[in-house]
Structure formats: structure tokens, C-alpha cells
Design a protein that fits this description.
The protein has 265 residues and is an alpha/beta fold. Helix content is 26%, strand content 31%. It has helices at residues 11-22, 69-76, 119-126, 135-143, 183-196, 229-246; strands at 2-7, 28-32, 52-56, 59-63, 82-86, 95-98, 107-111, 153-160, 172-179, 201-208, 211-214, 218-226, 249-255, 259-261. The protein has a 5-stranded parallel β-sheet with strand order 2-5-1-6-7, sandwiched between helices. A hairpin with a 3-residue loop joins β13 and β14 (259-261). α1 crosses α3 (119-126) and α5 runs antiparallel to α6 (229-246). The longest helix is centred in the last third of the chain and has 18 residues, at 229-246. The relative contact order is 0.14.
């Protein structure tokens, strides 16, 4: 899923224009933060429930725990191709900036106002950014594969940021990954092609995040769609081992005491 944030005056109007444009390319979800207090009726007969949903003539309503932008994007990723986010300037997203609005994400396109914004330029620039992937979104894509009807197994691997290897280690705060662009993508494609050439292996999906990834967050996913569990298990293990050994991805580790590039250490 490709994700873009919009900040500045009339951001919601720009988000609508972008959603209309992206709808030509796939399914679009929007995430908005209301700037005013709104009355949201509580679902009936659910006063003691921590989370509740109710379907009425206007659609679903819900109440419960607060969700972060990441939580909402995780929900959208398996079923949507695009997400447009407004009202969250602190979110670390590729961002369309209107005027001189403050924002935390990388500037994708800047314009003085909605009238000056080139929507086509936004669409083109967004395609060059890293997609928003989760384990669930990759599994959903594998299940939609035309060969899924022949598959009796989906195996997955998730790599995450650990705090320490042993009790004596200094805790890791976050990792920062950089990818040798172009070369890394080509190598990933070659690994996928090799693995998919195996008998009984129908689809191999891999995704490695870049940038800052905090302790406890996911780093890398491998998903294998196969006819049977034996080839599925072997392929997912070979996939992650080859990714780590062959793909030029560089890792900086930041602990409470120091920071260093792991390949230099």
C-alpha cells in the first residue's frame, strides 16, 4: 500500500482530490483527524465493553481504545492500494505540504496552496517511495495469487528489533537501515525468482523496511505460498538467509550507550 500525508490549510480538500486520482489505480482508504469535537453515539447495550461496534443506516460506528496512525494503516494495508492521511502532521510519512505547514515526514511535493498543487506530480512521486507493508498485507496478496487454489501452505518469517541478546547487553533503542537502491531491489527480485522456480513453490514475497525502526517493531517479512508444508518451510528459511547474506542493506545500531554501523563493527 502506498501512503501519503497531507498537511496545511484545506488539506482535506486536497486529500479528496488525491483519493479521486488514486481510485483509478486501486482501492483507496482515507485517515482523517477531526479538528472539532463531534458527537459519536455510543453503541447500544455496550456500556461495560472496552471496545464496541454498531452498524446503522450510516455505516459502522465504534468506540474503544485510541489507535495510532500506524494501527489504522496496519488495518488498511491488507485490502487497500493507497491511503491518504490528513490531520497528523507528526506522522513520519511522505507528505504533501501546503504553504509552510510544519510536518515530521519527508516532503513529497510542496505547493503554496490547493490551487497550485499538481496532483499528477504527487501520484508520480509517490510511486517512487517505499510501500507500506505488513505481514498481513503480504499474506493477503499471496492468497489472491491465481495459483492459491493449488496451495495447502503459507509460511511466514518476521524479523524484529530485539532489545538485547543477553541480560548483560546494553539495551538497543532502535536500528537504522539503509538500502543500496536499485542493486538491492534487483537482488531481491533474483532471489524471489530462484525460489519460485522450485517445484511446489507458487509465490515468494519479501519486504525489508528502511529508516529508523524502534525496539519491538518489525523489520523484515518473508511469505511463501506453496503446495505443501515441507517446501514452504524450506523456502521461507532459505529466503530470509539469502536476503541477509546477499542483499546490500546496511544497519546502524543505536543503544543507550553508543551507536555504530554493524558492518564496520
Amino acid at each position: 500500500m502506498m501512503v501519503v500525508g497531507v498537511v496545511g490549510d484545506e488539506a482535506d480538500a486536497v486529500a479528496d482530490r488525491l483519493a479521486d486520482r488514486f481510485a483509478d489505480r486501486g482501492r483507496v482508504g482515507t485517515v482523517q483527524h477531526e479538528s472539532h469535537d463531534s458527537e459519536v453515539p455510543e453503541p447500544s447495550d455496550a456500556s461495560s465493553a472496552e471496545t464496541a461496534f454498531e452498524l446503522d443506516a450510516d455505516g459502522w460506528r465504534a468506540r474503544g481504545e485510541d489507535k495510532s496512525v500506524t494501527d489504522v494503516l496496519d488495518t488498511l494495508a491488507p485490502t487497500h492500494d493507497y491511503a491518504v492521511v490528513t490531520g497528523f502532521p507528526n506522522a513520519d510519512l511522505p507528505t504533501v505540504v501546503l504553504g509552510d505547514a510544519d510536518h515530521a515526514g519527508t516532503t513529497l511535493v510542496r505547493a503554496d496552496g490547493p490551487a497550485e498543487l499538481d496532483v499528477e506530480a504527487v501520484a508520480d512521486e509517490l510511486e517512487a517511495t517505499e510501500p507500506y507493508e505488513t505481514l498481513e498485507s503480504l499474506v493477503a496478496r499471496a492468497k489472491r495469487d491465481p495459483k492459491a487454489e493449488r496451495s495447502g501452505a503459507i509460511t511466514t518469517f518476521t524479523g524484529r528489533v530485539r532489545a538485547k541478546d543477553s541480560d548483560e547487553d546494553t539495551p538497543t533503542e532502535f536500528l537504522d537501515f539503509e538500502m543500496y537502491e536499485g542493486v538491492a531491489d534487483a537482488k531481491l527480485d533474483a532471489i524471489r525468482s530462484d525460489l519460485e522456480a522450485r517445484d511446489g513453490v507458487f509465490r515468494v514475497l519479501m519486504h525489508h523496511r528502511t529508516g529508523r525502526i524502534d525496539y519491538g517493531e518489525d523489520i523484515v517479512f518473508v511469505v511463501v505460498l506453496a503446495g505443501h508444508r515441507d517446501e514452504a518451510f524450506r523456502t521461507v528459511e532459505d529466503g530470509i538467509n539469502r536476503l541477509k547474506a546477499e542483499v546490500p542493506i546496511f544497519k546502524k545500531e543505536v543503544t543507550l550507550d553508543e551507536q555504530f554501523w554493524v558492518h564496520e563493527r
